[in-house]
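tool_call: predict_structure(chain=1)
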Amino acid sequence: MASPPGSDALNTTRRLEAEEIVKGIEDNAIVFTDWDRAYDFYYVAHVLQGRIGMDFHETYPQEGVTQFADSAIQYIAANIESRPIYFSERPSQLASKYEITRAGSDLFRIEKK
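tool_result:
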């Protein structure tokens, strides 16, 4: 079965974008992003580059929910001192507890204040 026209170019574009982002983060990084990008990042980091210490999570895994889950907040708190944590969108809800800085053109990093 043939691929739809243009799909190879799209896949190549997505892979190249993911490679550009993944190359700029640490081997033990945690990244919160949307589902499509999480899959792209996992594929590039784990399959293509063998960098299996990175973790990628969907920021809002439940459709229609735009608040961080309590479990995500606990996960961040448990890892903030030992692993770099990034978001593909500015995590404004965390601004009162964490310093948010732009990390390259596509990510935001949070650190303890």
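agent: The chain has three helices and five strands. Proceeding to next step.
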